[in-house]
Specification:
Number of helices: 5
CATH superfamily: NAD(P)-binding Rossmann-like Domain
Strand order of the largest sheet: 3-4-5-6
Shape: globular
Order of helices and strands: EEEHEHHHEEH
Distance between the termini: 35 Å
Strand content: 15-25%
CATH class: Alpha Beta
Mean pLDDT: 73
CATH topology: Rossmann fold
Radius of gyration: 16 Å
């Protein structure tokens, strides 16, 4: 059973039978803007930074109960929100300059999310979703430990750039 969030047509939960207490996972929807703040949308960036912090602390706290907590961080996703940003050329150029990655689809986000949820070694993982649903897994909240330029260089290195 899929629950679809009508406003943006994003899959928000998947239920495939009775819960198995030995395989519980919580996935938070983050964004790269939680690490690369967008000054033209401070509330969005702040909420995504809070989501990263919440996932990090929850993963440590809930580990003892066998509950995995991870966070999915899509790059630019083709949504009405992105279209609204594209309508402002100055802002759109600045986003492309700061984070020159390929635009992904909702299907890419769902594919990456499913891979992250179904993998049993994802507690504390923040995973960036790229084109085709590929994931960059970042253990131990490395967004908080590695400088931005190192993450950006890694995105270039693996071919995630435009």
């Amino acid at each position: 059973i899929l629950e679809i969030q009508p406003r943006h047509e994003v899959c928000t939960s998947i239920y495939a039978g009775p819960p198995n207490p030995e395989k519980v996972a919580i996935m938070l929807m983050g964004s790269l803007s939680g690490h690369f703040p967008m000054e033209w949308n401070p509330m969005y960036s702040a909420s995504k930074a809070a989501s990263l912090s919440l996932a990090t602390t929850m993963s440590k706290r809930l580990r003892m109960h066998g509950i995995r907590v991870c966070s999915i961080l899509p790059v630019l996703v083709e949504t009405p929100l992105l279209q609204g940003i594209k309508d402002h050329p100055v802002i759109w150029k600045e986003i492309q300059r700061r984070l020159p990655v390929s635009i992904i689809t909702i299907d890419d986000v769902v594919k990456g999310s499913m891979e992250l949820l179904l993998s049993e070694d994802t507690n504390g993982v923040n995973a960036v979703v790229l084109k085709g649903g590929r994931l960059i897994r970042l253990w131990n909240s490395c967004f908080f430990y590695y400088p931005r330029y190192a993450i950006r260089q890694h995105l270039y290195k693996i071919g995630a750039v435009l």
